[in-house]
Structure formats: structure tokens, C-alpha cells
DNA sequence: CGTACGTTCTGGAACGGTCCAAAGCCGGTC
DNA sequence: GACCGGCTTTGGACCGTTCCAGAACGTACG
């Protein structure tokens, strides 16, 4: 038994399929009694429009594809929430695909999305550079959210202002009295921006020589190892600015393992204000990127770009704030 | 400029659209030179089949819809991974929708999926009971994964064996020498199963009177509050079996706040073996549900059910294991 | 040489919607 | 009564595929 089609509804209501279509799309030009007959028929048959048929005919899918870099890293949840709300308000649905899950399968997600003929594409987080994304972005309106790359001709970028975020974190520590400060660096453009900002602030305060940087890799493990390296220097830093919350948690573990109390012996600042940072037992001081807002704005950007695909690419940065919790305090000596 | 269609490819290759279709679907009945001509044309034009047109004609979408209860709770990630790999092997793509994100928008996710005419539906985790899901399940092959409800006529259930999981946790604590043990209970059938199993094991060891149960709500906050209640009893428990990792983290915070050392003064067992439990700084002893396996089996179930939609519903349970980490040890007195 | 039979290839009918030009209906005007 | 114009309604073309019946083209055989 196949699901009812618009023709079944039309027959039942005693009208033409065109009229059913009009009613379903909310036309004013329909006499009330016919409208009700149609709606009654829809109800009785449990009719649901077929999205494939509709989009074939309309030449659009009212669907945007969202590419996630890795679900295991929880920073994107708020962003998605913001995205979703704004897209939903404009009658668009969201399809999710996780790059990490699929990379190991060697599947190209953008391929799926182009076959689906999504109306737009949102890349959330830093994705591995790929030719596929380049060419997809050339065909369908695309926005990068919560990351700074790739930078492509007609692709907008919406993200937190990493420079001012890292500045907030670093200045907070300096204001508390820290002088010798370490940084766990991340990958890509975002990593470079936060790192450079950290270094700039240190320089502004004449602390260049007291700044130490070790490379992490966005994971807890990476943060842990970077911290061990930072803390094994002859003069250990009294505070660390971590690239993100996950690596900050790694730092927390390293500190604990080395017998350091946080924040008494070591202050830590994370980045992203993920729910992990909000876990009472961790309670990380962290930089909040206003991810929900980033998501909403990214959605708006996409809507604008769908309306005018050729407009110049723009970069929208949100202003981060510092969320002070339990992992920062004045250094032991002060 | 519209994306090329199969007719464009046919024209360019100097064949009929039917032949192009044959080539693209991998027919053997095509002479090599024509095949190559077609493939070359596909390549030059950058042709991608239109999924909507295809599914309209084939009457299937090669897509399954996945309903998540809440992205903020990380237990499902492994499960999705398992799901995805098996579905992918069978040429099915996965569409994700998060119940939590959409509930606040008041949108009915199953509606989107039925309009999309997905070939199958997978409900991941305990979803709020809804008439929509009932009726969707009546129309399209459906499997519940990582939860035990709803139980519907032709809906399979694939999940960890909560009874034996809670038993593992409880017996582990008893074997360590704990006698007075608390439980943070969860919601729904899963919550009831784990709770009953906890109580059964306690009874088997003659510890009924030393068992205490407080209701949590699956979140850290709920776990925290339940633990405060458990620990404010005149005789506090020396160990707690938490419903899940998140509430276990809440318990950890509560213990810390009350000045108890874990595991010296209080042992804790979580549930789900999420990446949160693996964070070094938390390092929770937890029950592993073999989520990846649950995902794979759920996918297999769905495939079987798509092949034969009327077969009787089955319940598949995986055997959990205990992951012993840092939050359990012998009680202080022993 | 005509016929039968594989192997390849093709035209056209679905699939289930949207959209548009045109038709039907109505009361009001001249 | 013919004509007009606004409001409703309709038939049919179209969207880009798949699928099927049958055409075209060998090749082998009697």
C-alpha cells in the first residue's frame, strides 16, 4: 500500500490536484468550503507531500547541509542550536553529516550533499582542506561557521574573534599577577590567531621572554602532553592559556598528576565555554565565543547568500567574553 | 546556469539518456567504448545525479533518518559511528536530527523524515513518547537503538543489557567491600531496569536495608543533587552506582564539595563509557555498553526489517562490560 | 539467403509534485 | 443580450531520473 499522493487527495475531495496544491501552499484564492474539503481529505488519508517530488519541481530542497568536523568535540552544539533556530524560522531544514565518522569510510560528504541538491552548505569547524569542498562551494552557497578557513571566493566566514578572545584570556591572567604564562597552541588559522594574539599581549606587557608555547592537538591527550612539556621547563609557568576546553582539561590532569593545585599553583583558561567546561568538577575559566550567536549569524549569512550568490564574501566576527570560573586565580606568591 | 542533467551527458557522449543511466548504475550490458564515452562526458560536465529525481523514480531514498534525543549528552557518539559504518556498507546514507534542538521549535522531526520518505528510521536514546513516532513507525521500518522504549508492534529494539550492566557495577562495588551503596536513578524503562537490577543484587547479598535510591535526571545537575541527598543521610553510603556518566560527574562534584575524597571516601560508578568518563581528570569507572556494537546491530536490524517489514519485532541486547578506572576502590575502613 | 537469437541500445511512460495559461463562473454595465 | 473583469478552478507541461518493452544490430545456423 503506497502512501497517498496529491491525486488521491484531489479525488477524495472532488477537486483537481492543482487546487489541492494551492490549498496546501496556503493560497488565499480558494473558496473556504473547497479548502475545508481538501484539508479534510488530507487528514483522512494521512497525506504527506513527497519532498522529492516537490523539490524536483521547485528546483530547490529547502534543505541546507551541515558539515561537522568532529562530533566528539562538543563545542559545536550551541552553534548548531543557533543555526537551527534561524534556519527553521526561514523554512529550511538542516541535514547533518559528521566528517570524522565519514572520513574513515572514505566517503565524500559534499558529494552526498550535492546529489541531494541542498540549497546551501555550512561548514562547522575547521575541516580538512579538500578539493571537494572547493568545488561544492563554487556551485552552492556556502558559509564557514566557527572556523576561519578555507577562505574561498564566495564563501562567508562567521566566527568568534579569536584575537580578542585570546587577548581576554591572557590579560585576565596578567591582571591576576601572572608573569610566566604558557600557551597550548592549536591547529590551523584559528590556532595561529589565538597564538599570535597571546604573544602580542605578552609583548605589550613586556613579558615576551616569559611566554612559552607548546603545540597541542585539540584533544585532551594533546593538551595533557603539551602541559607536561610546559611544566617540565626549569622555570615553570604559573598559568596556561589553552587552545580549547578539551586541551584545558588535559592540562588540568597534567597539573594534578604533577601534584600542582589549580588554581593555587597553576591557573588555566580554556576556550569555547563548552558544557564540559561547565561541569562542576572541572569548572574551567574559559572564553565564550557566543556560539549560539555565531550559529544564528551564520544562518543569516547563508540566507543572504542564497538570495544573492554573487555578493562578495564577508567575514563576520562575534565578540567573545570571558567566563571566569574556578581554574584561575592569583599566582601562589602574590 | 543549471547543473547538468543526464540528458546533457547523453548528448555530449552521443548516446541516449537510458544508456547513460545504465552506465551509471554499473550495468554489464554496455560496450566498453560507449561506457568510456559516457564516463568521460560525466567527468567533463561534472555531472552529479539528482537524488530527488532518482528517489522519485526508484521509490526509495537510500536514506535513513536518525532521531537523537539530545546531542548534549555524549553517549550516542559511538553508537552513531557503528550505525553509520554498517549503513554505509549497504549503500544507505544517514540523516541526523536532534530532538532537543527541535523540540523547542515545536517541530515534529518525524514529519520531516516522512516527507523525505526515508527508507527507515532509527530512534537513538529514549525519546519523549509521541503519537507522531507511533504512526511513523507504522509506515516505515523503525528500530530503537540504545533505549528500550517505545515498544511498538513492528519496531525492533537494540540496546545494552541494562540489567547485567547494573549488576556488574553493583557487584564490583560489593566485591570491593562496600555494603552501604546508593543509586542515582534515571528515567524511563532504562532507568527502571538499572534500578531494579541494582536492588536485586543488593538483595541477593542481603544488603537490602543498606541500599538507598535517589532520583537523578540524566544530567550532571541532577546527579549532583541526588548525591547531596544520598550523602546527607545519617549513615552515608560509601559507594554510588550512577545512572549514567553525566550524573556520575555530578556525584563527583558533590563529593568534592562535601570534602570527600574519591575513591577513598566514596566510590563511584558511571554508565556508558562516554569520552567524558575517559577524561583523565575524571577517569570514571563506568559500564561500557559496547555502543559501537549496538549501533552496528541496530543498523543490521533495520536492514533486515526493510527487507521484511512484517517480521515480528525483536529485542537484541548486547553484553556490557565494566571499565574500571579511578573512581572505585575499597571503602575507607577495610 | 532467411530466420532465430543474443547483445546493445533507445523511446516513452512513469514517479508526485509545481506552475502557468486558459477556462468557467459570476455579477455588473452599457 | 453582449461584454467585461475579478475570482476560482483546471488541464497539461515540466522537473530529472528509472524502468520496460521493443528496436537495431550483429552472428550463427539451417
UniProtKB/TrEMBL annotation, chains A, B:
GO terms for molecular function: DNA binding. InterPro entries: HTH_LacI (IPR000843), LacI/GalR-like_sensor (IPR046335), Lambda_DNA-bd_dom_sf (IPR010982), Peripla_BP_I (IPR028082). Pfam families: LacI, Peripla_BP_3. Gene3D superfamilies: 3.40.50.2300, lambda repressor-like DNA-binding domains. It comes from the Bacteria. Residues 4-58 form the HTH lacI-type domain. The keyword Secreted does not apply. Keywords: DNA-binding, Repressor, Transcription, Transcription regulation. This is LacI family DNA-binding transcriptional regulator.
Amino acid at each position: 500500500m503506497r502512501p497517498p499522493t496529491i491525486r488521491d487527495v484531489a479525488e477524495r475531495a472532488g477537486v483537481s490536484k492543482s487546487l489541492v496544491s494551492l490549498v496546501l501552499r496556503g493560497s488565499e484564492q480558494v473558496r473556504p468550503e473547497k479548502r475545508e474539503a481538501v484539508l479534510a481529505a488530507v487528514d483522512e488519508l494521512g497525506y504527506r507531500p513527497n519532498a522529492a517530488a516537490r523539490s524536483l519541481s521547485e528546483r530547490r530542497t529547502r534543505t541546507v547541509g551541515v558539515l561537522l568536523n568532529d562530533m566528539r568535540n562538543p563545542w559545536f552544539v550551541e552553534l548548531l542550536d543557533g543555526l537551527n533556530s534561524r534556519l527553521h524560522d526561514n523554512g529550511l531544514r538542516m541535514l547533518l553529516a559528521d566528517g570524522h565518522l565519514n572520513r574513515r569510510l572514505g566517503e565524500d560528504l559534499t558529494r552526498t550533499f550535492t546529489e541531494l541538491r541542498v540549497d546551501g552548505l555550512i561548514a562547522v569547524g575547521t575541516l580538512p582542506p579538500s578539493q571537494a569542498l572547493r568545488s561544492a562551494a563554487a556551485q552552492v552557497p556556502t558559509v564557514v561557521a566557527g572556523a576561519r578557513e578555507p577562505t574561498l571566493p564566495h564563501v562567508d566566514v562567521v566566527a568568534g574573534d579569536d584575537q580578542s578572545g585570546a587577548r581576554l584570556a591572557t590579560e585576565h591572567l596578567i591582571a591576576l599577577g601572572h608573569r610566566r604564562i604558557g600557551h597550548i597552541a592549536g591547529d590551523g588559522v584559528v590556532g595561529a590567531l589565538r597564538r599570535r594574539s597571546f604573544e602580542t599581549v605578552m609583548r605589550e606587557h613586556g613579558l615576551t621572554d616569559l611566554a612559552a608555547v607548546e603545540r597541542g592537538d585539540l584533544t585532551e591527550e594533546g593538551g595533557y602532553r603539551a602541559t607536561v612539556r610546559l611544566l617540565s621547563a626549569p622555570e615553570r609557568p604559573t598559568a596556561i592559556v589553552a587552545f580549547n576546553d578539551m586541551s584545558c582539561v588535559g592540562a588540568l590532569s597534567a597539573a594534578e598528576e604533577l601534584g600542582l593545585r589549580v588554581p593555587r599553583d597553576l591557573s588555566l583558561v580554556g576556550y569555547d565555554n563548552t558544557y564540559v567546561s561547565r561541569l562542576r568538577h572541572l569548572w574551567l575559566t574559559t572564553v565564550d565565543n557566543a556560539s549560539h550567536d555565531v550559529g544564528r549569524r551564520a544562518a543569516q549569512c547563508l540566507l543572504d547568500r542564497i538570495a544573492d550568490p554573487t555578493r562578495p564574501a564577508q567575514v563576520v566576527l562575534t565578540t567573545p567574553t570571558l567566563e571566569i570560573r574556578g581554574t584561575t586565580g592569583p599566582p601562589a606568591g602574590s
